[in-house]
Amino acid sequence: MTGRRGGRPLVPAYVSTGGVARPSRPHLERLSLLVGTRTPAPAGLPAAQLALLDALADGSLTVVEAAALLRLPVSAVRVLAADLIDRDLVLARAPIPPAARFDPDLLKRVADGLRALKHT
């Protein structure tokens, strides 16, 4: 996964996934949260999967963040993560649905209200 001067990796993404093109878990999305289980990695794991486990050692990452860190396409990281989930080395949580996220307008109104209280 070492890069060339132009930023393209020396190893194509399909080699990182062992030639697998689709993840075993199609529900794994770009914003799914990945967390390592801290289970020791078995011998013989591919380098890309070890790199993903290493990236998750300090906490959790979304699939997109992991892809950026590993400098791999999101589709490749979805395949790698799905395989690690199948091996119980990684847990995945679905992204927060848009309806459950905070409304920015509501937060702005609360902040404005707090500022108004401060000045009275």
Describe this structure in words.
- The chain has 120 residues and is mainly α.
- The protein has helices spanning 13-16, 47-55, 63-70, 74-86, 104-118; strands at 33-36, 60-62, 90-93.
- Strands 2-1-3 form a 3-stranded antiparallel β-sheet.
- It is elongated, with a radius of gyration of 19 Å.
- The termini are far apart.
Write the layout of secondary structure elements.
Layout (H helix, E strand, L loop, with lengths): L12 H4 L16 E4 L10 H9 L4 E3 H8 L3 H13 L3 E4 L10 H15 L2
Antiparallel strand pairs: 1-2, 1-3
| Separate helix tally | 5
Strand content bin? 5-15%
Label the overall shape: elongated
Low-confidence stretches: none
- The whole-angstrom Rg is 19 Å
> What is the first-to-last residue Cα distance?
59 Å
- Give the biggest sheet: 3 strands, antiparallel
Q: Can you give the mean pLDDT?
A: 83
Sheet/helix structural class: mainly alpha
Helix content: 40-55%
Please trace the helix and strand order, writing H or E for each element: HEHEHHEH
Trace the largest sheet across and list its strands: 2-1-3
What descriptors fit this protein?
elongated; 3-stranded antiparallel β-sheet; 120 residues; mainly alpha
Brief description of this entry?
The protein is mostly helical and 120 residues long.
